[in-house]
Design brief:
This protein has 384 residues and is of the alpha/beta class. It contains 16 helices and 13 strands.
């Protein structure tokens, strides 16, 4: 089987899935259509070496890329120019659109009707086009505009999965009452909520610490907040660092906080934290959360922006070490047994095979990657 993956640039979050597809297929090609941004580089992102990666701006390989797109059994279209698959779609050949949600800015909803014609043109109804949902709310956003209803599969991002020889030993090495937050310091990632939660915990008598990894425009605001709350001995701002060092901090932390709102299309740090044995407390609006986390079983889910609920969830985890440890174990198994690159790649190839045979593919799997993606509301009231 021949697979081509088109995306903007190649990074460590995409490599595990690509490695798996490369091993499992006769020919696999990842076409990077852009160079990595300086912002991503400052955050510690790297471009790994891989034999299957080619660059669209490499004139010497442009003919090879065009032929590969035309002849592939399936093309995965990520964040890349849609014109690269326009001819393929018109000829009725199989394409998977790999997408985060369309509607991330609720206060700018007036813009979306203006883009409906563009979206319709890029997702023609009669084409052999399917949706790989990088987030639980993707199918609903597409369906709201009459796109790809019934042709959507659960998917996501699949960073490196580590299988520890003795997971119980990892849990023993974690720092007591340690919290971790990782991401860009952006308004929609709400780093201030993590600091406020530590303030609330301190006021309630909990001796907790919080490490925050990343940089961004809200960093100065967070620094002022730490000073005003007198949390200098509780909260450390560690700046940006390479991926492997971030995983090291995850392995030491008991609890991982993810506080973003609906603009967080997926949130690969959640996969990584679960794999690292953290008990995760995450906002319900994050795209990965409904797929990866089952509230009270392998993590805690709180209403987006609700400091009181977040604090209550953290108090529960801190007061119940046995429950916290069991959530960590369950989270680890969720990633190592189901939500990982190997499972996703194997299942995607089975879906391609079923579609090629003209058979329905949306009932192959009951849960996890490549199971059918339902229409899920991102409203907390609807969730409850």
């Amino acid at each position: 089987m021949k697979i081509v993956f088109l995306s903007n640039y190649f990074n460590h979050h995409q490599k595990p899935l690509s490695d798996a597809l490369y091993r499992m297929t006769d020919k696999y090609l990842f076409v990077a259509t852009a160079q990595m941004s300086e912002e991503r580089k400052r955050l510690g992102y790297q471009t790994p070496e891989a034999a299957y990666v080619v660059y669209l701006d490499d004139a010497s390989r442009r003919a090879e890329i065009t032929t590969a797109i035309e002849e592939a059994d399936a093309v995965i279209l990520g964040s890349a120019p849609p014109e690269l698959v326009r001819k393929r779609l018109k000829s009725g050949k199989l394409v998977f659109r790999y997408s985060e949600r369309l509607i991330k800015h609720k206060d700018a909803s007036w813009k979306y009707p203006l883009q409906r014609l563009k979206w319709g043109r890029n997702n023609p109804r009669k084409a052999q086009l399917y949706l790989l949902c990088a987030g639980a709310f993707v199918a609903a956003d597409y369906a709201a505009y009459g796109l790809l209803r019934g042709n959507a599969f659960r998917f996501g991002y699949f960073p490196q999965t580590v299988k520890y020889p003795d997971f119980s030993d990892l849990l023993k090495k974690k720092k007591p009452a340690s919290l971790l937050w990782v991401g860009r310091f952006l308004s929609w990632k709400h780093p201030e909520l993590a600091v406020k939660a530590v303030k609330a915990l301190k006021d309630s008598g909990f001796d907790v610490t919080l490490d925050m990894i990343g940089t961004g425009g809200e960093e100065a605001t967070v620094k002022k907040m730490i000073c005003s709350y007198r949390l200098e001995d509780r909260v450390r701002l560690l700046g940006a660092m390479p991926y492997d060092k971030v995983r090291g901090y995850m392995e030491q932390a008991e609890i991982f906080l993810c506080t973003s709102d609906q603009q967080e299309g997926w949130g690969a740090v959640i996969n990584e934290a679960m794999n690292s044995g953290c008990a995760v407390a995450a906002s319900h609006n994050i795209g990965a959360v409904p797929y990866l986390l089952e509230d009270g079983k392998n993590g805690e889910v709180f209403e987006c922006g609700n400091l009181t609920m977040l604090t209550e969830k953290l108090v529960l985890l801190l007061n119940n070490p046995g429950l916290r440890a069991q959530m960590s174990v369950n989270a680890y198994h969720t990633v190592t047994e189901l939500w990982n690159a190997e499972v996703a790649a194997e299942r995607l190839l089975k879906v391609v095979e079923m579609i090629q045979k003209g058979k329905p593919a949306n009932e192959l799997f009951a849960e996890g990657p490549c199971s059918s993606a339902g229409i899920l509301s991102d409203s907390w009231k609807d969730r409850c």
